[in-house]
Amino acid sequence: MSDPSGNGQQKPPSRMTRRGALVLGLAGIATGGAVAAQWYNVLAENDGEAAISPVEAHRASGAGEITLVDIRRPDEWERWGVGEGAVPIDMRRADFIDELLVRTGGDRGKPVALICARGVRSRRMTERLQAAGFTQIIDVPEGMLGSGAGPGWIKRELPVYRP
Predict the structure, then answer these.
(1) I need a surface site. Which of 7, 16, 78, 137 has the fewest CB within 10 A?
(2) Alpha-carbon gap, residue 91 to 116, rounded angstroms
(3) How many other CB atoms are there within 10 angstroms of residue 97's CB atom?
(4) What is the DSSP code (8-state) at residue 10?
(5) What three-state secondary structure class fits 75?
(6) What is the per-residue pLDDT across 126-157, written as a single tens digit (0 to 9) for each?
(7) Contact 158, 83 (CB under 8 A)
(8) Model's pTM, two decimal places?
(9) Which helix (H) or strand (E) holds 125?
(10) What DSSP character marks residue 147?
(11) Cα 49 to the chain's mean position, in Å?
């Protein structure tokens, strides 16, 4: 590449400075940290009336007080099992709400607790079900694998079954 001054000298190829490399590296770390925080749901809390622990969900589903729905994918059910008392309904199903209505006897006011792997999908599905007219949606933010809210169903050694 010629020097724009026209003196015929070659301009050295541009190289990233140490400061540029540091900034780029820090941006990558920050992005990776944000992705990891979302994936592991590190900011989840297990308090409030709209959230319960896996232990409470297991007890309440066994007592018939709630319909506990495992909204994960079938491959996840196979890998880690489904919590005892939970109904597995893949949240990606086009007829998810219709199937949930079957499970609740058509009652949109019946308490429904949602569990997924780490509480991220269940939190999102709560909003979708509220928009569909369900009034008592309960989140299990620990999920099956644990999150910031706690260790999760599996580490708490609650019973599971394979569908």
Answers:
(1) 7
(2) 10
(3) 17
(4) B
(5) helix
(6) 999 999 999 999 999 999 999 999 999 999 99
(7) yes
(8) 0.73
(9) helix 120-131
(10) B
(11) 19
